[in-house]
Amino acid sequence: MRLRFLAAAAVAALLTGAGIGMAASQSTAPEPTENDAKAFIAQVEHDLAREDEYASRAAWVQNTYITVDTNWLNSRASAEFNAMAVKFAKEASRFDTVKTDPVTRRKLDLLKRMVVLPSPSRAGAAEELARLRTTLVTDYSTAKFTYKGKALTLDDMEQMFRTLRDPVATRTLWEGWRKVSSPQMKEPYSRLVTLANEGSRELGYRDTGALWRSWYDMPPDKFAARTDQLWSQVEPLYKDLHCYVRGKLSEKYGDAVQPKTGPIRADLTGNMWAQEWGNIYDIVAPKNLSAGYDLTAAMKQHGYTPEKIVRTADAWYQSIGFAPEPATFWERSQFTRPRDRDVVCHASAWDLDAKDDLRIKVCFTVSADDFFTAHHELGHNMYQRAYSVQPYLFQGGANDGFHEAIGDFAGLNALTPGYLKAIGLIDHVPGPEADIPYLLHMALDKVAFLPFGLLVDKWRWEVFSGAVDPAHYNEAWWALRKRYQGITPPGPRPANAFDPGAKFHIPNNTPYMRYFLANLYEFQFYRAACRQAGWTGPLNRCSIFRNRKVGEKFEAMMKMGASKPWPEALAAFTGEHDIDAEALVEYFAPLDAWLKEQNKGQTCGWQ
Ligand code: X8Z
Ligand code: ZN
């Protein structure tokens, strides 16, 4: 084929050109042309798509059946894909000064930054990096903590955390998970950081953090400043929520367990990482106002199963015009934890062939958390299928925050009482007195998440840049947890603790700023959708269920994939050209006024 010839010619030119003392006219390889660039891209897209499918299938098998052999296969496939992508990314630089059409130029740019952890080119490095990655995620996924004679998985403990209200028990589980999952990761993790940085430098990035910050169609430093500025827009709202919740926790547990000042004790938030607090709604619920229903209870009452939750989410997407998940989705997905083997339980959505082999892999129970997560995961699948019309290098989100925001937007609609009534989960829609309880419940998840969404990669940026060395990994983690979230561990941390490793995205090397961005985008999408639908009531009651016109416009944005800079994708659906925390702030404005009223006389903050 044309490009194989091109590649061979380039190698030949390099070899001859390397000869010392050659005349300049003989030693200079011919300048590549626009056609060379196009041929190069065609070859890259063909080869990467093929290798990608191979690596994805190996990863699926490993994720759903962890054994020594599937780990081996996954490492091998991942190393090969990584090495190929890095090689192409380097070759792309040959066309830096070639004048090309905008599509080819964007593909060349995307190619240079597509690898999350680039492997160094020296022999054996890609294999070592891949093995470290598999080891870390396997350690995380197979860890069990023995409590009262029972070996508990993480998802067992997460489920207990939702309703446990005994601070001795929550502390035991919280510390137990961090003892069994992560201390042994510190050494392999720091090795992985060294290797990924070496690979990133070969590609021209200062470190892997700089590579990650380069994904947003703006200079990396500008992106970092932008995230700080977005945080400053929502920080006052977070502080009001923090103040109110701390007061309620102190009322419930007493000053000895939760003091009225200072940070919140992490294990009292109903979540293993204190990242979303919706599970402790019962503790913070206003005395005189009722939400009117409990979604988890309603689902149990109506005989919901994990699969039924997923079918309900699929039906929501169909109601706005999306095609249903294919038959193979229902045959090949994993909805619950298999009882006889180890798996990676953390929820994920898969696209195996860039056509129709879509799947999710989750370990659901019947809970409001999983109801939301089902919409979240299907959002990934819907996006994957929408942009499968694009060429390989454009088969991705407008940015990774968009990918996370699609399903969160669906979830915002699906949690409204109007929708829950329409699908028969609740009998009547509560009146306006339920708005504050509803917003409070939403804020416990959406507002509480913001500082966590921000700090995970602030920590990793410091680790990749070398600002924090392995001896200070844990200290730096807790400094950020305290500074941004205002939370604290239930007791002193042991010297060998590696608490970042007790959160999936660290051993799995999934970048995290995407979730911070998504939490803002989802409210921008929601506000725009409600305007398009002509909604005039309180924003929190708006639902675009069955609105095919809005669905069509949403899908049009999704079909763009990564073909255009993200501001263009955002504008295609919302008319807005920039990310803006104002939509979230507007949504929660009635709650913030109420919180300020409740907090009167309290000393808020924690420094
Ligand atoms: O990891 C996820 C999804 C899969 S992309 C379930 N989320 C983050 C987390 O669990 O920490 C969704 C919210 C944030
Ligand atoms: Zn996701």
List strands and helices in order, with pairings.
Layout: H1 2-17, H2 24-27, H3 34-64, H4 68-92, H5 102-112, H6 125-142, E1 145-147, E2 150-152, H7 154-163, H8 167-180, H9 186-202, H10 208-213, H11 220-253, E3 264-265, H12 281-284, H13 295-301, H14 306-319, H15 327-332, E4 348-351, E5 358-361, H16 368-386, H17 400-414, H18 417-422, H19 435-465, H20 473-485, E6 487-488, H21 513-532, H22 548-559, H23 566-574, H24 582-587, H25 589-598
Zinc ion binds next to helix 16.
Q: Your description of this structure?
A:
The chain has 25 helices and six strands. The chain is mainly alpha-helical. A two-stranded antiparallel ribbon has the order 1-2. Strands 3-6 form a two-stranded parallel ribbon. A two-stranded antiparallel ribbon has the order 4-5. The protein is globular, with a radius of gyration of 25 Å. The N terminus is likely disordered. Bound molecules: L-captopril and zinc ion (ZN). L-captopril binds next to α16.
Mean pLDDT across all amino acids: 95
Helicity level: 55-70%
Query: Sheet with the most strands?
Result: 2 strands, antiparallel
- Looking at the structure, what is the overall shape? globular
| Alpha plus pi helix count | 25
Strand order of the largest sheet: 1-2
Task: Work out the strand percent.
Answer: under 5%
Distance between the termini: 65 Å
The counted number of beta strands is 6
Q: Which hetero compounds are present in the coordinates?
A: L-captopril, zinc ion
Q: Which stretches are poorly predicted, pLDDT < 50 over at least 5 residues?
A: 1-25
- Rounded radius of gyration (Å): 25 Å
* Structural class based on helices, strands and sheet pairing: mainly alpha
